[in-house]
Amino acid sequence: MNQYAVIVIGGGPAGLFCSLLLGKGGCKTLLLEKMPTCGRKLLLSGSGQCNLTHTGPISEFTSHYGDHGRFIRPALMHFSNVKLISFFQDRGVPFRDDGNGKYFPESGKARDILNVLLKEANEAGVIIHTGEPVHTISHDISGFTVTTRTDTYHSTGVVLATGGYTYPVTGSTGDGYTLAQALGHTIAEPGPALTPIHTQNFPFRDLSGISFSQVPLTLYREKKKVHEARGDLLITHTGFSGPGILDMSRYFRAGDELRVSFIQYTNINSAREGLISRFSSGGVKQVKTILTSLPLPDRFVRLIMELAEVPPDMTCAQFPKEMRNRLIQMLLEYPVQEMKLGGENEAMVSRGGVSLDEVRKESMESRIVPGLYCIGEVLDIDGDCGGYNLQAAFSTGELAADTLLKKLKILEKI
């Protein structure tokens, strides 16, 4: 009664999609979900609107997964953004492009995506047990034994789709890390990703809501540059957010210093020289007039001049070199120290997880335990804002299902 071909652990998008594909392929599949219902984190994605994926060639997606784009590439190429959208469109879910490359259900409801997954899983014959957390997984020559708080199950294969550890209210509490580690896997240190930064005594708190488009961001560790990027920056009451910060947050570590530019530039030395030239040739124009013409928001200009100790009525002709250089430094490399990342209840995804060195990128199968597959956020991979994480969840889930179905059919013939 408790014998299955495959047991999928975790009822998020990766686990649901993988299980329904297994079911459709004729595989007797059990899905175990610890929470009372499946897909709780999916319902929160995109502020409840579900940014499912992104536009553009799938070959360009790999640059949006930090240092792990090469690992995710086979899964993305096997099940692309076009195939993902088509899957839901064929089942009655129309989509819209928000103009910035993000795909959302036309209804603006993540529930539409979840309903399709649940309906398809049910029709495929997947057995779903909710409210049943997995306690242990053991493996021997006969296969897997999965023990929950209420029962014991046996299977040929196991798919670990437990997610990360952020948004624990949805059930993502890092259980998959413990289960994988017990089976011999290495866990890359988990941490928050796609999260804002907070800092003590934040001087820009009264400017909350002001944003800057595609500005350079540079991260330093022990006075050495470790990462640089550019993206949209948003001032909040407690620090910085916006896509640029969220995407870069995967790299932040304790003790790092972030340097923020409020002005777009291609080369910082050229930008510095350009500002010096503007002020030097400004004559009787006030410094604030030069700054607002860059353009910079008036409220921001007043505050940054105050922080740089530049009098509000200072003219360019009166502008001392030391004061000028201090202002330019703040505009191009404003230092953010004592940063604190938004924690597990604020981060959209987790960085870290099951080491990618121990998983076959062509199949998502473990190199440590044959028959064990790791998909979605439990892996040490996280994507940028814009639907890249959900695409990874569906793509890795599809690749694992396809590999398992082929493997099980071969076993049947032996």
Report what the structure shows.
With 414 residues, this protein is of the alpha+beta class. It folds into 2 domains: 3-192 and 346-413, FAD/NAD(P)-binding domain (3-Layer(bba) Sandwich); 197-341, no CATH class. Helix content is 32%, strand content 25%. The protein is built from 12 helices and 19 strands. Strands 1, 2, 6, 7, 8, 9 and 19 form a 7-stranded mixed beta sheet that branches. α1 (13-24) runs parallel beside α5 and α1 runs parallel beside α12. The mean pLDDT is 95.
Characterize the biggest β-sheet: 7 strands, mixed
The CATH architecture designation of the largest domain is: 3-Layer(bba) Sandwich
**Percentage of residues in strands:** 15-25%
Judged by helices, strands and strand pairing, the structural class is: alpha+beta
Kindly identify the CATH topology of the largest domain. FAD/NAD(P)-binding domain
Average pLDDT level? 95
What's the helical proportion of residues? 25-40%
Whole-number tally of structural domains: 2
* Tally of DSSP β-strands: 19
N-to-C CA distance: 24 Å
User: Helix segment count?
Assistant: 12
Low-confidence stretches: none
The CATH class assignment of the largest domain is Alpha Beta
User: Over all CA atoms, what is the radius of gyration?
Assistant: 25 Å
Based on CA inertia axes, which overall geometry fits?
elongated
CATH superfamily of the largest domain: FAD/NAD(P)-binding domain
